[in-house]
Each structure stands twice: as structure tokens, then as C-alpha cells.
Design brief:
The complex is a heterodimer of chains A (354) and B (554). Chain A has 354 residues and is α+β, with helices and mostly antiparallel strands. Helices cover 21% and strands 30% of the residues of chain A. In chain A, the strands form 5 sheets. Chain A has a 7-stranded antiparallel β-sheet with strand order 5-4-1-2-3-7-6. In chain A, strands 8-9-12-16-14-13 form a 6-stranded antiparallel β-barrel. In chain A, strands 20-19-21-22 form a 4-stranded antiparallel β-sheet. In chain A, helix 1 packs antiparallel against helix 2 and helix 5 crosses helix 7. Classes of the chains: A alpha+beta (354), B alpha+beta (554).
Chain lengths: 354, 554
């Protein structure tokens, strides 16, 4: 017993000892479990209890094939929540449900199209939350134990606690991934883990180390471009901190595919093109979000876009490329075919783009 | 932002990590970062020797625990090449075990299959009772009387984040029947997974991160003390197909325990329903619908009542209400605490069966009779503590109402006759004698094999906090039930009544006396549905058979 206590004290001073701190914890649990009497407090209880209070369940808009639910991590006592940038956040029905079942309406404060993160705000006080540490030097090492807390498959409902899972940090890499058919714009460092966190609804959840510190925010489901397998990854806490402290959106990296910028603009207008994959995809509109800018301008499902401004377009990629050249606040005219009629739809991009 | 720390060869991480637990390291990512070190670092450099010893000791304990548990895990196969099969766990040395209903459903017509154990042998498997609604079934392996078996635990002791292992046969990998062990943590408790209609509903289940794949179904969840706390049967699968993505679900052993009496007797045990639904109005959980003729209506529940607690547990949401009810079989007693207007009331009822019209199931009378024998033998051995000469167990314990009645009746020579009558010291307020015949009739069903020939196990019951098997004898006008502890056979209660009202009169033994080597229940509490209750005490008088008449001469 003396050895264990000594060990845990050293753990906070010397990072290399953190790995075996879990082992001591494991040993302590095994010893007490083997004893006939039930041990009332297990070493991981406080870690789990904290995580369950600091991760929220999110519900919002259903956009295409995306889920209308997800997870978020509380990062301030007054209700700032960091989460992944997904279609869930669109529309006006975004809400966060806390560990005690309280439901709050949430609004998007800030988006990061590159890191695919967003900060939400709910009106509350005194909420348990994670501090977001800034230093890259504190990233977990391969082999470090990690706890993941999120709401995959929306298993938890109302006041039910979110799901927790345990595993190891597998290492760190640069993300080269895609979400469905779209390349993800972020190619910076991510933490990898053997905890399966690429499940629907997990994005935005928390990755926590044995000391109870937030080490990452679970990223939106991504498939590796190299291996074509799902990546269990999280944005490191210092990347999250950078996002939180940035005043302006970061300069767009060179590798950003033009169609990605175009897709962002279409999303901001509330337009989804009928994109079933393959090279020849006429630019039919699959869906226009109700109450979006495109809806107000008169664009509707099944409209076929013939031209963007004075640029004729044949396929969806053409639309995206043309849109990519536009700046926030720009006006654009779309020539669309509806049934046998041809119409002009006038749109203006919002001042602030995601 | 990049950090170019050469972590891999600054210190040796792999072996000390391996000493802790099975961890999958991202091999491709490590390979990408690695350049060959000058010389391999010692495996445990930088590790504290004492802590390492703790880790290794914990690992060895884990290995030992799961080795023992593995011996009790069964690889279940159908008796023909048809689909079906999965895992199961033995809970009794005679070979009784638990699995999922859907594992054995494909061979429910023949009830015969095979079970492979880690000793490498295949044993004949027989399906006993089923709980299709809750996806549980009991089976028995034949061929040994000393099968390895796992102890049963308590899911209420589980905590999220706690280590938990699933043992079974995922992807039917185990050609040598050695079960696969997958360690994870408890991810959530009291979870709900919708069923298909009334079948396969997982209410109040355990969610785990242990890897659960097709083939794991029916296998046990084992805690670090080696106890079975649940039976694994479902997982969340999505776009990637039917492979593990880190969410598995298990029925708690606590729920299964309530179904054991019926399962052991070869019955299909239906789940119970109150016949009422609830909804949240603000913070109140309100009864918003009551079925006519339902247990809720008969107990006096009214529309608009606020439900506060079930069996003393506060209930806050419709999910909690559903989880509570769905984890209980038909006929289970439930105590409701409700608020009607300003007044709070406590109501008691028994759940009625939730019928599964899709399922045709014919209970096996042979299994039922075998379980009746088991329970009667346990009653004699454990409760009465009869170190029985065989004659006692074949039913030659006789009871008589009055000493003179015994003297007038020819007592068979091989009978042990006792009289329970009113002791002279009986308090005047509750003379026992008028009530003796009804109690005697019930006791004789347990003591006399002839009298008890028509006893059948009809299901289970809860008496205080003990699980009981219910043995019933039913005639056109009379129903007698004896509630015996499922494990020990202890007589917990007797009820008497008619087919319309089976529990009109209720007897509970509250005191015992040792008499002639037998521990008799002699003090009883008798209550009736009319509200009356008495405490009754009986005395024992041994009756000797009358001496044989002298032979006539000539």
C-alpha cells in the first residue's frame, strides 16, 4: 500500500511514471475486488464521474445521411461547449442535454472549417467543465491510458449518463482522411487511440488522461486515405486551444481542395447537391434547408443548376469550383432549370462563412 | 504544429505497457515514426520495481481468474449443420447453464444441441426453459456430475469504468472450444435497447466496451472476481456491418435470477406488465393510461396519479419505469408508491403476463417433474433438515389433526407420524386448531409424494428479497401453492385459494422447532385477503403405530 501511494504522488511530477500509475490503480482494484467485501470506492470513479458531468448530449438538424445527434465537451462554467463541426449544428433546433437531464438551447459561437471544430454556447452557470490546456508538450504518449466519454448511437437519453470507454493512446499522426466522399481539410496532428471512437455520435466527446485532464476532442468520423479504414482519432487539446484563441479563421492551407471551399459555401447557403459519387453528376439540388438563404431566394429540391454567375456548369464539381471563387458577402446569380422553366435565383453569401 | 520527439527510442515503452494489459498499439503509426535504435533499451528501464511487481501480480490474478471462468464457458452448436449457435456459461456442477434465447431458438423444436467445453470435449446439450421476451434460455449439458461452473455475481455492484470481460466464441473461432476473452470496461448501466415487438427487449442492460461480435451471444460477462454478472447478447452495429464497434449489451444477472425458477422447470416464462403507462409532465411522472382489468386498475391506481417509487426505488423517467417493469416476470409482486392529489399511497399488485403471440412453445413435463423432485428433496434436506432415511423421502411422513384421530387411523408401519396440534400453552387469542387442516393439506403436498403427485412448478415469486419457485396443485375448485427458495428449498410461504383467487389465504412460517431430528415450522402467520391476520403456533406430538394385534390361535 505504501508503494502505491508513493507511486501516485510521483505520477504527477514525472510523466514517464504516469503509465504505470494506471497499473498501480489496476492492481489496487484487483486486490480489493479479490477481497470478499465490496470496495466502496474504485480509483477510476472520480475520473468517470467528472467525465460524465462534463460531456453533453447534442441534438440538432438531420442533414442528408448525417446523424442528428452528437456529443460535446463543456469547457467553461458558463456553458461553452466544444464539438465537431457537423451538419448537426445547422438550423435552429440545436440543443444540449446535460448529465442531469436539463435541456438547453444552443447557438454556434465560432466555427473552424479546417479543424472541423465548433464552439457552442448555452446559457447556464457553474457548470463542471474541462480546462483546455494549451501546451503541445502535454500530449499523451503511446501507451498512456485514456478515457473516452461520448454518446455514440445516442444510447444515453435525458438524465442518463454518457458512455465511457477505456484504452490506450496509440500514438500521434497527421490526419489524412475523408468523411464519406469529402476530403477533410485538416492535415495537422491528431491523437490515435485503440478505443473505438469513430462511432456515430461520438464526435465532440472528450478524451481524458489518468489525471483527469482533457487531452483531446473526438473528431468527426473519418476514413484514412491510405488504409481506407476508420480512424479512431481526436484533435489534441492544444489544437483545440489554438482554435479557441484564434481571432480570425486561419489562412487556408494550400492543400485545401477547391471543391471543399465550394461545398462550404453551399452549406452556408443551405444547399445540398445530389451527389451520389462517380464522375458525371449533373448539378441537381437534392435538398434546400428550410429557412436558409437559398430557400428564401427561391431555390428548391430538384432544381438543376445550369450556370453560376456567367459560368456554365455541367457537373456538381463545376458548381463547387465556381462557388469557391466567391468571397463572404458576394452576390451571385444561379441559372436553374425547374421542370420546363428556366429561372434566375439571386443569392448573397453570408458575411461570415463557416 | 508538429512535434518531432523521437519517443519510441527515448525510453522503452512497449514491454512495460505489455505488462499492464493487452493494448493494441497503432503499429502502422509507430512504424512510420521509428528509426532503428542503436541498441535495444532494457525492457523495464525507468520502471519502479515495486510498481512493476504489483502490475505483474495483478496480471497473474487476472489470468487465473479468467482461466477458471473459461472452464465454465460453453461453445454452443446446433445439432445439425443448420445455423445457430453461440456461447453459454455453466452455473451448476450438474451442467445447468445460461445462454441467449436467440442462440438456441433455431433448435427449439428438438431442444437438442451440443456444447463444447475447454476440456476439448463436446457434450450433449438439452434446452430447458426459455425467456424469449428477455432473450435468455437455460440449458443442461449431460455427461458429468462435476462440470466446472462459474459463481453468480450482482450487477448492482457494477460501476462505470470498471473492468469487465466477455467470454465466448465470437465468429465461432474456437475449434478447440477454448473461449475468447475480451477485456473492456463497463460503459454504462441501466441502458435500454429496443426489441422486436415484445421479443428480445434489453431493458436495464449493461453496456460494455469489451469486443462483442456475432458468436459472443449467450456468453457471460465476468468481473475481475470471476463472477457472472450478465449474459451478453446484443451490440450496436452500424454501417460497418455486424462487427464490434465498441458497444455491447448484456442482460443483468439480477434480471435473470427472477426467471430462474421458471427456466429450471422447462417453462416459457413471460415478462410482466402493469397495464399502465407513464409520461413526464414537468417533473412529475404521471400515470397517463390504465388498461381496463389490468393489475394497475385492480390495485387502485388512478389516472393522474404521480408515480414516486417502485419497490422503494425512486422512479423519475419513463425509461426508468420501463426498465423496472421489463426486468420482471409475470406474477411478480410490485409495490407502487404514488401520490394521488395531496395524499401518498402504497399499492401492491402482481404483474400480469405480457404475451408473445408469435411464439409456440410446449413445456416439457419431464423437466417440470424433475424440478419438483429437486425442490422437494431440497425442502426435506435443507429446510426440515431431515437426515432422511429413504422412506421419508418417498413420502411416508404423515401428519394428523388430532391425537385421537391418529389413534383411530391405522398408521402404516413404515410411516413416521406426527401430530401438529394446539399446544396447551397457546395464547387464548389465537387457537390454532381450526386452521390446522388447511395448513396440513399444503404441507402434505411437500411431504407425501403421493399427495404431491400433481404438483407442478408454475413459475417464480419474490418473498421478501428471496427468489422462490412456486409449486402448485390445482383442481377445479382449489389452488394450493408452496413457495420454496429456488436454491435451498426452504419453505417461504404457502397460499391457498380458488382458481379465480389463488392467493386468498397466505401462510408464512416465522418460527421453527427441532423435534425428533426434524426442524419443523411450528409458528406461522396466517393472513387473508379480507385483511384478517393471525399468529398461530402448533405443537408436535409423535404418534407411535398401535401395537400389532396378537395372532389368533388355531
Amino acid at each position: 500500500m505504501k508503494t502505491q501511494r508513493q507511486y501516485l504522488m510521483r505520477a504527477s511530477a514525472a510523466p514517464q511514471v504516469a503509465r504505470l500509475a494506471m497499473a498501480a490503480v489496476l492492481a489496487a482494484y484487483s486486490v480489493s475486488a479479490a477481497a470478499a467485501a465490496q470496495d466502496a470506492s474504485q480509483p477510476l470513479d472520480s475520473l468517470v464521474a467528472d467525465a460524465r458531468q462534463r460531456v453533453v448530449k447534442l441534438y440538432g438538424a438531420a442533414v442528408g445521411l448525417e446523424k442528428a445527434y452528437g456529443s460535446g465537451t463543456l469547457i467553461s462554467p458558463d456553458g461553452q461547449i466544444v464539438t465537431a463541426l457537423t451538419g448537426l449544428l445547422e438550423g435552429s433546433s440545436l440543443r444540449a442535454v446535460l448529465h442531469d437531464g436539463r435541456v438547453f438551447s444552443a447557438r454556434v459561437l465560432k466555427r473552424d472549417a479546417v479543424r472541423q471544430l465548433a464552439v457552442l454556447k448555452i446559457e447556464a452557470d457553474d457548470l463542471p467543465h474541462y480546462a483546455v490546456p494549451a501546451a503541445a508538450a502535454d500530449r499523451p504518449l503511446p501507451g498512456d491510458w485514456l478515457l473516452a466519454a461520448a454518446n455514440p448511437f445516442k444510447v444515453a437519453d435525458g438524465p442518463e449518463p454518457v458512455s465511457v470507454s477505456f484504452g490506450a493512446c496509440s500514438g500521434e499522426t497527421r490526419l489524412t482522411g475523408r468523411h464519406r466522399t469529402r476530403e477533410l481539410p485538416y492535415e495537422g496532428p491528431v491523437l490515435l487511440t485503440d478505443i473505438i471512437i469513430s462511432t456515430p455520435g461520438s464526435a465532440g466527446g472528450a478524451l481524458v488522461d489518468l489525471h483527469g485532464r482533457l487531452v483531446g476532442v473526438i473528431g468527426r468520423a473519418a476514413i484514412s486515405r491510405q488504409t481506407n479504414t476508420y480512424l479512431n482519432y481526436a484533435l489534441p487539446a492544444d489544437e483545440v486551444a489554438a482554435f479557441l484563441h484564434e481571432e480570425e479563421p486561419p489562412a487556408r492551407p494550400q492543400s485545401l481542395v477547391p471543391t471543399e471551399a465550394g461545398a462550404q459555401r453551399l452549406l452556408a447557403l443551405g444547399v445540398r447537391l445530389f451527389d451520389v459519387g462517380g464522375r458525371i453528376r449533373p448539378a441537381y439540388v437534392e435538398r434546400v434547408m428550410p429557412e436558409s438563404l437559398a430557400w428564401s431566394a427561391g431555390l428548391r429540391t430538384s432544381d438543376l443548376i445550369l450556370a453560376v454567375g456567367d459560368q456554365p456548369v455541367e457537373v456538381c464539381d463545376d458548381v463547387a469550383e465556381s462557388m469557391a471563387e466567391l468571397q463572404p458577402g458576394d452576390a451571385v446569380e444561379l441559372l436553374v432549370k425547374r421542370g420546363d422553366d428556366v429561372q434566375m435565383i439571386e443569392l448573397r453569401l453570408p458575411e461570415a462563412l463557416p | 504544429m508538429t512535434t518531432a520527439r523521437p519517443r519510441i527510442f527515448r525510453r522503452a515503452t512497449l514491454p512495460s505497457v505489455a505488462a499492464g494489459a493487452a493494448i493494441l498499439l497503432g503499429a502502422s503509426c509507430l512504424a512510420a515514426a521509428q528509426t532503428p535504435p542503436a541498441e535495444p533499451a532494457p525492457p523495464t528501464a525507468g520502471a519502479d520495481a515495486d510498481a512493476l511487481a504489483l502490475v505483474r501480480a495483478a496480471e497473474q490474478r487476472r489470468i487465473d481468474t479468467f482461466a477458471a471462468a473459461s472452464a465454465a464457458v460453453v461453445c454452443i452448436f446446433a445439432d445439425r449443420t443448420a445455423a445457430g449457435g453461440g456461447s453459454g456459461v455453466l452455473i451448476d456442477p450438474a451442467g445447468y447453464g445460461l445462454t441467449n434465447y436467440h442462440v438456441i431458438a433455431s433448435f427449439l423444436d428438438s431442444r437438442r444441441g451440443f456444447g463444447g467445453l475447454s476440456d476439448g470435449r463436446l457434450y450433449p446439450l438439452e434446452v430447458l426453459g426459455v425467456d424469449a421476451g428477455g432473450d435468455i434460455a437455460m440449458f443442461r449439458l449431460h455427461g458429468r456430475d462435476d462440470f466446472p461452473h462459474a459463481p453468480l455475481g450482482d450487477a448492482n455492484d457494477l460501476r462505470p469504468g470498471q473492468w469487465i470481460a466477455a467470454l465466448g466464441n465470437p465468429f465461432m473461432l474456437a475449434e478447440d472450444f477454448q473461449p475468447t476473452i475480451s477485456l473492456g470496461v463497463v460503459s454504462g448501466l441501466h441502458r435500454y435497447q429496443t426489441g422486436e415487438g415484445n421479443l428480445l427487449e434489453y431493458a436495464d442492460c449493461i453496456q460494455v466496451s469489451s469486443s462483442i461480435n456475432p458468436g459472443n451471444s449467450g456468453g457471460p460477462l465476468i468481473d475481475l472476481a470471476g463472477r457472472v454478472v450478465g449474459i451478453v447478447g446484443r451490440a450496436s452495429f452500424e454501417e460497418r456491418g455486424r462487427v464490434n464497434v465498441g458497444l455491447g449489451y448484456a442482460v443483468t444477472l439480477n434480471q435473470i435470477r427472477r426467471f430462474l425458477p421458471g427456466l429450471r422447470a422447462g417453462l416459457l416464462v413471460p415478462h410482466g406488465t402493469l397495464g399502465a403507462t407513464v409520461a413526464l409532465f414537468g417533473d412529475d411522472l404521471v400515470i397517463n393510461a390504465i388498461q381496463a382489468g389490468s393489475p394497475a386498475e385492480r390495485a387502485g391506481v388512478r389516472l393522474g396519479d404521480v408515480l414516486l417509487a417502485l419497490d422503494g426505488q425512486p422512479v423519475r423517467t419513463p425509461n426508468e419505469f420501463n426498465s423496472f417493469v421489463a426486468a420482471r416476470p409475470a406474477n411478480w409482486p410490485v409495490e407502487l408508491h404514488v401520490r394521488s392529489g395531496a395524499a401518498e399511497r402504497t399499492l401492491r399488485l402482481r404483474l400480469e403476463p405480457l404475451l408473445l403471440h408469435e411464439l409456440v412453445y410446449i413445456p416439457d413435463p419431464v423437466q417440470n417433474a424433475a424440478d419438483v423432485r429437486r425442490l422437494r428433496a431440497a425442502f426435506l434436506r435443507n429446510d426440515l433438515q431431515v437426515n432422511a432415511p429413504p422412506s421419508l423421502l418417498t413420502g411416508s411422513l404423515r401428519l394428523y389433526a388430532k391425537p385421537d384421530e391418529a389413534n383411530q387411523v391405522a398408521v402404516p408401519a413404515d410411516a413416521h407420524a406426527f401430530v401438529l396440534g394446539s399446544p396447551a400453552s397457546q395464547p387464548a387469542t389465537a387457537p390454532a386448531e381450526p386452521y390446522w387442516p388447511e395448513l396440513r393439506g399444503a404441507l402434505e403436498l411437500l411431504l407425501d409424494a403421493g399427495a404431491g403427485a400433481h404438483l407442478r412448478v408454475i413459475g417464480g415469486d419474490r418473498v421478501d428479497d428471496r427468489i422462490a419457485s412456486v409449486l402448485e396443485q390445482r383442481s377445479d375448485d382449489r389452488v394450493t401453492r408452496c413457495m420454496l427458495d429456488y436454491d435451498t428449498g426452504e419453505l417461504l410461504a404457502i397460499s391457498l385459494g380458488s382458481p379465480d383467487e389463488p392467493e386468498h389465504i397466505h401462510w408464512r412460517p416465522t418460527g421453527h422447532k427441532l423435534f425428533d431430528g426434524i426442524r419443523w415450522p411450528t409458528v406461522w402467520r396466517r393472513s387473508a385477503t379480507d385483511g384478517s391476520a393471525q399468529r398461530l403456533e402448533f405443537e408436535l406430538v409423535r404418534v407411535e403405530p398401535p401395537p400389532a394385534a396378537p395372532e389368533d390361535e388355531g
